[in-house]
Amino acid sequence: MQPSQDIARLVEIMAALRDPTTGCPWDIEQSFDTIIPYTIEETYEVVDAIERRDAQDLKEELGDLLLQVVYYAQMASELGLFRFEDVVEGITNKMIRRHPHVFGDAEARSARSAKGQWERIKAEEKRERREAREKARAAFPADAAFDEWTPGREENLNGLLDSVPGALPALALSRKIQEKAATVGFDWTEAAPILAKLREETDEFEEAVAGDDPDAREAELGDILFTVVNLARRYDIDPDAALRRTAAKFRARFAAMEAEAVREGRTLAEMSLDDQETLWQRAKGSENRGKR
């Protein structure tokens, strides 16, 4: 089999890897659940390549991420749920429908700012998903060994927050929940009460620490983080990006500390905390001079 720029070749390769007789033993053993960690890892590797502005790595990592989509689609096809082509058709249909001001007729283009247009489109999509589930349920084999994938088993999504995926990373999950709540007015309109709330939560965390209750400590720390996300929203800051930026800064300063220690003929592990702090301040000062 030869490589190709045609996406169909990647689908063929995945089908061959999953072939029960001639495929790869590792790939054959995988399931939707076992692949999840790899999907998360590949997503973050794409982000890392972008932040490093490494075009070659980005090209490779995007390929790895695309493979995850093909992998899930192949397993779904094996169960008779859907095919990769259905995934492509679904997303192209969604993009066309959600952008009538780009792909629609003259009337749709002139109604670019029509009030309620987005809500109408979303309502139509929800209705069509419900109809598709009902149709699939009727066609699904009654004796299927994979009942957990039975079409039509839909959760009750009547609550405002029910549409927020619970598997999102904690910072993104918190931000999405807060944004949803804000659509009905449940939100602070100024930063001052958020800062006051942060101080209140910090005090409560100190009380929990003094009480030596591990569960209370975790709960109160969660409250602090949730409030910090709210503060980030108020100033239009992505909390995940802000934290990643700080982590990158810490890594750079720590690397500078290690290099300085080597120049002194020592290791960080041999140093006292005071000596380490001296190296930290040097690294920080060097960083600030570099900015100037």
From TrEMBL:
<dbReference type="InterPro" id="IPR048015">
    <property type="entry name" value="NTP-PPase_MazG-like_N"/>
</dbReference>
<dbReference type="GO" id="GO:0006950">
    <property type="term" value="P:response to stress"/>
</dbReference>
<feature type="domain" description="NTP pyrophosphohydrolase MazG-like">
    <location>
        <begin position="194"/>
        <end position="253"/>
    </location>
</feature>
<dbReference type="GO" id="GO:0046047">
    <property type="term" value="P:TTP catabolic process"/>
</dbReference>
<dbReference type="GO" id="GO:0047693">
    <property type="term" value="F:ATP diphosphatase activity"/>
</dbReference>
<feature type="domain" description="NTP pyrophosphohydrolase MazG-like">
    <location>
        <begin position="30"/>
        <end position="103"/>
    </location>
</feature>
<dbReference type="InterPro" id="IPR048011">
    <property type="entry name" value="NTP-PPase_MazG-like_C"/>
</dbReference>
<dbReference type="Pfam" id="PF03819">
    <property type="entry name" value="MazG"/>
</dbReference>
<dbReference type="InterPro" id="IPR004518">
    <property type="entry name" value="MazG-like_dom"/>
</dbReference>
<keyword id="KW-0378">Hydrolase</keyword>
<protein>
    <recommendedName>
        <fullName>Nucleoside triphosphate pyrophosphohydrolase</fullName>
        <ecNumber>3.6.1.8</ecNumber>
    </recommendedName>
</protein>
<dbReference type="GO" id="GO:0046052">
    <property type="term" value="P:UTP catabolic process"/>
</dbReference>
<dbReference type="GO" id="GO:0046061">
    <property type="term" value="P:dATP catabolic process"/>
</dbReference>
<comment type="similarity">
    <text>Belongs to the nucleoside triphosphate pyrophosphohydrolase family.</text>
</comment>
<dbReference type="GO" id="GO:0046081">
    <property type="term" value="P:dUTP catabolic process"/>
</dbReference>
<dbReference type="GO" id="GO:0006203">
    <property type="term" value="P:dGTP catabolic process"/>
</dbReference>
<dbReference type="InterPro" id="IPR011551">
    <property type="entry name" value="NTP_PyrPHydrolase_MazG"/>
</dbReference>
<dbReference type="GO" id="GO:0046076">
    <property type="term" value="P:dTTP catabolic process"/>
</dbReference>
